[in-house]
């Protein structure tokens, strides 16, 4: 634990990021997309995503147990193949571009999703169709690999199905738990794990577990509207700042 990140400003971003992830894993899917952009203000984007991965997997274990009886097999069969393709594309992209380009991609993805929510809230695919499910699964796999924020494209396909609330949450939990485990190998091959981020992940685990349980408690008792409004506003601000960092970094590199 001696190699833990000690910059206090990092934890100003890390604490709310882990709380957002916990709420997302508890059932408020989508609001966790702001987590990696927050940390990417202090770390290279993929390193930020790798730091959060052990936190996510620990939260997955809690949510899988809670929602183990609530899930939709057909949706998983449709979306997972596309997600694997999307993750493969993201892996290839991350291996050939600079951190500043990744910042632009991560920030651009965040801004695009927020603008879609704000400007085109009725954009939905045909209910249950296979092709849209594979496509949005692919987009979700790509953004999940890059930003740990695959929730919004996943929801574009899943929400119109109007599944029972707990079935939707359980299906979401299983989908992203599978993706998170599959990220371990590519992140190792990309060299994104190091003693500092692994030690910091371990230090954040108690907060992650508490936030996860809070999310589980809230999803059974409160409407999600306010959480989404706050999270998307935060995501827009942070993603815009991240894009600015990427542009300035690319200009400075020339």
From TrEMBL:
Keyword terms, alphabetized: Cell membrane, Membrane, Transmembrane, Transmembrane helix, Transport
Family note: Belongs to the 4-toluene sulfonate uptake permease (TSUP) (TC 2.A.102) family.
Organism (species): Rhodopseudomonas telluris
PANTHER family in the cross-refs: MEMBRANE TRANSPORTER PROTEIN, TRANSMEMBRANE PROTEIN YFCA
Source species taxonomy: Bacteria, Pseudomonadati, Pseudomonadota, Alphaproteobacteria, Hyphomicrobiales
Domain of life from the UniProt record: Bacteria
Predominant localisation class: membrane
Subcellular location: Cell membrane
Database matches in Pfam families: TauE (PF01925)
Membrane topology: Multi-pass membrane protein
Official protein name in the record: Probable membrane transporter protein
């Amino acid at each position: 634990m001696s190699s833990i990140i000690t910059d206090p400003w990092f934890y100003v971003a890390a604490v709310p990021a882990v709380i957002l992830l916990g709420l997302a894993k508890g059932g408020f899917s989508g609001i966790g997309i702001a987590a990696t952009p927050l940390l990417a203000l202090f770390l290279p984007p993929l390193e930020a995503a790798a730091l959060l991965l052990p936190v996510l997997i620990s939260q997955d274990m809690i949510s899988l147990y809670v929602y183990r009886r609530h899930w939709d097999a057909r949706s998983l069969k449709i979306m997972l193949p596309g997600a694997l393709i999307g993750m493969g594309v993201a892996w290839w992209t991350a291996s050939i571009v600079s951190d500043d380009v990744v910042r632009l991609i991560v920030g651009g993805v965040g801004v695009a999703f927020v603008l879609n929510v704000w400007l085109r809230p009725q954009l939905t695919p045909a209910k249950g169709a296979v092709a849209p499910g594979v496509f949005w699964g692919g987009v979700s796999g790509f953004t999940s690999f890059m930003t740990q924020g695959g929730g919004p494209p996943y929801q574009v396909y899943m929400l119109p199905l109007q599944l029972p609330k707990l079935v939707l949450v359980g299906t979401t939990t299983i989908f992203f738990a599978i993706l998170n485990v599959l990220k371990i190998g590519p992140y190792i091959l990309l060299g994104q794990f190091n003693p500092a981020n692994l030690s910091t992940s371990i230090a954040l685990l108690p907060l992650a577990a508490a936030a996860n349980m809070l999310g589980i408690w809230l999803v059974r008792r409160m409407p999600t509207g306010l959480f989404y409004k706050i999270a998307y506003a935060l995501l827009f601000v942070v993603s815009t700042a991240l894009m600015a960092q990427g542009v300035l970094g690319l200009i400075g590199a020339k």
